[in-house]
Amino acid sequence: MPQETDKKISHYILKATELKSLLDILFQREYHVIAPSIRDKSIEYDPIASFDEITRGWIDHQKPGSYRLANDEQDRFFGYVVGFSSWKKYLYPADKKLFEAEMDTKNFRVIEDGTAAPKYAFLGVRSCDLKAIEILDKILTEGPYVDLDYKRARDNALIIVVNCTRAGENCFCYSMGTGPRAYSGFDLALTEISDGEKHYFLVDTGSRSGEELISELGLSSASEDEIKTAEKAIEQTIANMSKILNTDGLKEKIWANLDSLYWDEIAERCLNCGNCTLVCPTCFCADIEDTTDIAGEKANRTRKWDVCYTLNFTYVHGGSIRTSCKSRYRQWLTHKLSTWIDQFGMFGCVGCGRCITWCPVGIDIAEEAKQLIESS
Amino acid sequence: MENLERVLSEHPFFAGLQPEYIKLLVGCASNVAFKPGEFILREGEPAESFYLIRHGKVMIETFVAGKGSIMIRTREAGEILGWSWLVPPYKWHFDARALEVTRAIALDGKCLRGKCDEDYRLGYEIMKRFNAIIAERLEATRLQLMDIYGDHV
Amino acid sequence: MATMSDSKTNEINLTEPMITRPFRVNRAIKDTHDTFSLELTPSGNSNKFDFAPGQFNMLYVFGVGEVPISISGDPAKQSKLVHTTRAVGNVTKAMNKLKAGDTLGVRGPFGTAWPVKEAEGEDVVLVAGGIGLAPLRPVIYHLLANRGQYGKIALLYGARTPEDILFQKTLEKWRSRFDFEMYITVDRATGNWKGNVGVVTQLIPRSPFDPLNCVAMICGPEIMMRFTVLELEKRGVTTNKIYVSMERNMKCGIGLCGHCQLGRTFICKDGAVYPYSQIADLFTKREL
Questions:
Q1: What is the ipTM of this complex?
Q2: Do the chains contact at B147 and C223, CB–CB below 8 Å?
Q3: Spelled out in words, what is the top-level CATH class assigned to the domain C7-109?
């Protein structure tokens, strides 16, 4: 986890050709480097073993229910915005063994999972996703109970942000106050500038670990011009971000519309598939699964991501609480934009737009929230 | 007579009723007592009165051949028993059996209906009180029908 | 790999709330045709289990699964942990088959408690419906053990039929006390039943508590609690003196799995016991 420093953010210049050196240091320091790659025709965050595995030269086109990669004319490393998966899958794995138990005649004993915490370096974390990690920090490490596996992985993680110089069609981070630029919470933050002639990164440091990396790389400080160029690129991103969600009083407005007929309209389209929960970088709901081997001698407890769109999710002896499609969509949206604030003091949505892109029928959380409020 | 007047005015059912009406009702009232097991009302018989229970406990029930007595509701001191005297053709729909020694004031239905017809304000007072009781019983019956402690709630 | 029997790892267990602790079943009691109690002997360093009335544990049957079950025993008897439940699902049915000497996993205690401290100096009215008597029994033990601290104490208990009445022996003992008012009613009865018939809400007008100086604690099916709140309000009890216990699907018991959300609250950590006024606006929302 990045350590707060007293110093103001310092700015340095990393040439595109020097990105390899940064990665080499990370490998040397035995980080598990996770970086963008292409999988299933989408940007994915995968472990890489060498610089060559980093993907380059792609941008993405996203629409409600649609995602397409295309060639990036500027041949940037980070020309796309976000793909279907997020960093959550490393810090809070979808399938995590919690313990094993062994039965001997009448007694069982519990064997805790003793796996050492991983040491990740995340390369290419977007500002919205960094905020999503901070949301998970709040939930999983700052309550009365702490998810120790998460905390250990998080404490070890090195975070290299990439500020967004392009707005995706489904992005609305600016509305949610989560992007497109990160100001804290990272070790390093890169802003990629590629204008045909020059190709470099403006590097912001956010922690002592970040400073150390910079000095090991021997980077020179950025000029005023270079800092301004990066700022302009980010301003342009904001100007290009067409999706807007007005968050003024949003929490109260959503809650006040709990009985709105508009939920029925959404339910007409919603398939209750739960894709939105799986791609969401903040959805944390989990199932606890207990299983045994066939002999009944060994048992496992596993934590698995769960989806609030299933009937099972609210099953209590005799029946489920949320039996209608609309009640389940309502739970999800209301949680993200209203009750999450009551629970954790922040929205549960960072405006990354994944749920919009990966919804098979293109339901748009920002648009639905707006319609819901206007319909009342 | 004075004793009956006091008993009537002290029973929760008549709480707040003007004294002149209480006086009027005494003419329709009489003291009754039932031994444990004794029937107070029998299904199908004329519903000629209702009871302000002063002491004891009464079971409202119905009998189903092969199943025995099916108990519907108990009534206790401070409550009233019976409202079929209000609804034509004035017949009891259930049995009522004293579970303990039960003392009550019986109010003659025909007499009471006559007084209510003569004075609509008295009639309204009586109707308001029975309305509350009927509503409460309907609500309780609905709750009973839901079988809320079963498996499927 | 660390094992539970290794005393060094006990520290880890304290901070790792998802790890279950194996407790020995001391006695299995059949309460009614579909309910049962398990008396457990706490394991670990102290052999004691400290809890507040109203709290619950996550109970784990080896390999079958885990369910939240409220504690039904005496909070003063820390060497004996008692749970009472109905055999309705996979886990509780498997639990019902456990015998003395078997092992059951325990995580907890979790959740909020009934307001036994706040109720001191006041009348206490407990309204229980069905299996809802089980989570209230620790309160009764506490009230009776500290009888001098409270005004009148009334238990209003509604069950489905006379055969469904829980803890019959204990209730008989309590009935004989002069400082404890008890009213039991059943929804339906046949045969020789001499007690009350009717829904539990009907007991409220006739029980002798002072509505202006009382704390009410309600536990039962939600619909029963809704009607009970209405009746209590009719008698003049204010909603901030009324407490209810809520139930939802729970997987973790510690507010991290998301299943038990009721609007803005997590029943496992903000409840299961709530002041009614705190969730009054959520109480009648459908499919929340």
A1: 0.93
A2: no
A3: mainly beta
